[in-house]
Amino acid sequence: MxxxxxxxxxxxxxxxxxxxxxxxxxxxxxxxxxxxxTTEEELLLDTFFHFHPLAIEDxxxxxxxxxxxxxxxxxxxxxxxLNEETLIAEELNIFVxxxxxxxxxxxxxxxxxxxxxxxxxxxxxxxxGTFFLTYQTIDKIVDSYFPLVYKIEDHLNALEDELTYxxxxxxxxxxxEFRSDLLHLRRTILPMRDLLYRILNSYRFALKKSExxxxxxxxxxxxKLTEMVESNRELxxxxxxxxMAMNSSRMNGIMMMLTIVSTIxxxxxxxxxxxxxxxxxxxxxxxxxSYFIVLGIMLLIGLFMLVFFKYKGWFKLFKP
Length: 320
What we know:
By secondary structure, the protein is α+β, with helices and mostly antiparallel strands. It contains 8 helices and 7 strands; from the N terminus they run βββααββββαααααα.
């Protein structure tokens, strides 16, 4: 689908006009949005707009790295937006000059809708031109990152408060899922931050001082997002280490208890083994109370060892 919007020379905003009207040069600027285009519509990038073949190739190929390319009379952006459900990056391409902006995306882009709605509601933005529209589009995309990061951060904070071995046996699976989500975010946010840095420091991308401040604000947002993602990744690492420490401590306690039980039964097994030998001339074998005496001795040995281990503080090391 192709959507059109333009500001006429008499300062009127019009929408959904035929693409051929662009050639009549009646507009101060125009915006053409290719939303989920068909194969025939994709061909218009070459046959109608005559964009550079390399830029067209970047539009048609899947998921190029965020970048800014300079051509003779326009600039070409590759921007990444994030799918709110899967956190997978989706590409948005922008061709921009002083007189036009052309956006191309193979997935739905609600950020474009928001900017166009803003233009309809705020006539004061009409005269700011195509670079301001570019700023608004990138800004809306970057703003859409924040709820995704905040959502993960809230879940991690709640999980950290409840993290105990008994109540969160599957905690590590949840933590690693969040680490995977944070990795998706990081792969998108870092290249976008580098792109904004290049925009701000490129002499070929001629920005006015006021426009530079707007793009600088986006860069600040991306720096903040980067810090939040890295902070949350460190939090997941700390939670993983804490869980492993708890697990190790629990295993050490279990091994300590098994060691105590085994140690107690060593002398008892020895006594039982001695009196289990079937010699005819063994003392005490034929005594009337020998069985009860041996059981009593074994019980006293076991109690003595329990008291001795408790005195030594071994039971304090056991944490069930």
